Amino acid sequence: MALAFPNPLPSSLLLLLLMMACSTSAQTYRNQSMGSSLTAKDGGSSWASPSGDFSFGFQRIGNGGYLLAIWFNKIPEKTIVWAANRNNLVPRGSKVQLTTDGQFVLNDPKGKEIWGADMARSGVAYAAMLDSGNLVLATQNSVYLWESFKFPTDTILPTNTIGQNGKLVARYLETNYSNGRFQLSLKSDGNLVLQTRHFPLDSANHDYWSTETVGSGFQVVFNQSGSIYVAAKNGSILNMISSYAGSTQDFYQIAILEYDGVFRHYLYPKRPNISNSTSWPSAWTPTSNFIPPNVCHIMEDTGGGACGFNSYCKLEGHDQRPRCICPEGYAHIDPDDERKGCKANFIQQSCNESMPETDLFYLYPMQNTDWSGKSDYEYFPSQTEDWCRNACLVDCFCAVAVFRNGGCWKKRFPLSNGRMDSIMGGKALIKIPKDNSIFKPSSADSKKKDRSTLILIGSVLLSSSVFFNLLLLLAAILAIFRFDYFKPKVLQTYPVMPGMNLRSFTYEELKKATNGFKDELGHGAFATVYKGTLESDHGKPVAVKKLNNIVTQGDQEFKAEVSAIGRTNHKNLVQLLGFNNEGQHRLIVYEFMSRGSLANFLFEGSRPKWYQRIQIALGTARGLSYLHEECSTQIIHCDIKPQNILLDDSLTPRISDFGLAKLLKTDQTRTMTGIRGTKGYVAPEWFRNMPVTVKVDVYSFGILLLEIICCRKSFEADVQNEDQMILADWVYDCYKERKLDLPLGNDEEAMPDMKRVERYVMIAIWCIQEDPSLRPTMKKVIQMMEGAVEVPVPPDPSSFISSI
């Protein structure tokens, strides 16, 4: 009997419908219909965009309440880009709902409304989280009645715009999303400004940066090509705020007015790192477009400036983030909020003329530091520093004296708009007690009162039997003290250098840590580096550098040089952890850099990303600038090259081997490349008996910058064209002939960013000028790299040779 098979068409159709049903049920996104809601709880659900790039829902903030927010959902850092209730976190169990009557509201667990979408008209049919990061409420015909892009908090995303009277308000702190102290506003007159706010009021106080587009600015645009600019009504660009070649196809991008008052543009690759295809980068990477470039120079008519009263602002770290620091003798009012300002840890100098207390105070010097003229109350021109010091010491109203170019300014409390910067010049003299006592009598009257009280108490005790009980108690305390005093003292387990956090290791400790100096990381003419682990520090990995042929065998001289290195503190320097100087041994212990050297990163394996190389170049420049201009003792590195630039887990560059020049024999600091006298890493001064200054490091950085741009070594003998052997010569020739695409090779990421490439090449050419006086300082190099200063056309680097 023949079997009857069913018609195949209905079966196929059924299978297709089943697949569609499975696919639909697996999706985490859809238009949210009337009655849809989300509840605040750990691990709660959210509304995702179609691609899954963004999600909308509740995020718990620390150990506190919940923020109704939009965030990046595909990367480990769930970066929040918009928040509804930033000033009022809600507890667990709160609910956001698209009600059946078309309202979009956030209620606490008791039903109290915390926030609601402000819509001009009704007719909402659904809510949707879009791939642009925009949350919308729309009609049945997809007309947007409300969208989060129209109400930004502190962040804008590509395709977002800010119209006239629109603004971004910075959060209060990095982890506190409530309204903070700064805002970015496009005024009704078309001028885009950064302003301080009358915190805690919701009003502007003082403009500290402007695009100067009064009368023409229509909107702020963040386009899909990664450019942020002020546009006129006809769409023309009036002021380019930030521009980066990476498109939104390759990078997630945000621009955020951060809690420190700086507007920054950030990137995050949409694909994992090339070097490790299974992992994402560790954090967002800022572009070089910081606005303003130095927020520390805010000068308000009222208020404390970028930092609070009695503190000072200083740029630190690879991204030059402003830090608010207390002067010597002062402490933060709130350790968790450094921008609240500082308070004195001592009682102020007495104004009692019979007991002026002049001898109890001294003036602590701080270079390149000042507070605004609002704190000034007297000025004396044409004076000496000693005169200025004495004038402040004898004046009970004087909290700080500032001496600059023969002028003496007296300042009183509160000190406002403080900043420390090398461009300030001069010296601030901070009045603090000699013993730095927190509590001390402030007048002769109080001292007399204390003495009288003691006499009275003594008289009462002597006239009563309590006196004898007190004698017994004192005798017991004395006996305990004598017993404790003569006990053998426990030696400090880990000796440290006085006044510093540097451990003094024994040679046996380091020998054990390095497994007998077997795991070699690298070696050079004057040292060998070994990898080690410190058992005493939970197996912490370290790098141990064993120095050979150092200048001195003396403990004190070696310690002095090591302490100079140890006092440095910058994100772009390798941190010194300790040392050993037993007998003939001289070893230095550094933190271990997991990603190895820049030489390995540039010249081995695949070509690094262009944006990564840009950040490495900037970070290295900032580290050198710190060594040259910000250290208490100026440090000339003398050996800048890719092998001495190390990379940490997040590819932050760390300069190593700085400060070692003084520990080496003279001839060792003059290390030559194989092509002596040509444009290698060594500056020409070494060969001409000219004074060696920080400009030798500038020269080496110029060569290094060319290597970073072109991803090739400064000298390569195995090339077909001899004109390309010396990188500096070849790049300069290409620059003159407008053929900079040649040394870039097939760098598809750098090619679209040729304006930046040309700028960096011009900076490098200025750095490698044969005449040291023509080379810029590293601070100027940073300004040119960031675009804050124009780069003039450089001359032929070798023109100095032909003129001598």
Automatic annotation (TrEMBL):
EC top class named in words: transferase
UniProt-annotated location(s): Membrane
SMART domains: B_lectin (SM00108), S_TKc (SM00220)
EC number: 2.7.11.1
Domain of life: Eukaryota
GO cellular component, one term: membrane
Annotated Pfam families: B_lectin (PF01453), Pkinase (PF00069)
Catalytic activity: L-seryl-[protein] + ATP = O-phospho-L-seryl-[protein] + ADP + H(+); L-threonyl-[protein] + ATP = O-phospho-L-threonyl-[protein] + ADP + H(+)
Residue spans crossing the bilayer: 454-481
Residues that bind ATP: K546
Membrane topology of this protein: Single-pass type I membrane protein
Residue intervals of the Bulb-type lectin domain: 32-150
Signal peptide segment: 1-26
Family that this chain belongs to: Belongs to the protein kinase superfamily. Ser/Thr protein kinase family.
Protein's UniProt name: Receptor-like serine/threonine-protein kinase
Organism: Carya illinoinensis (Pecan)
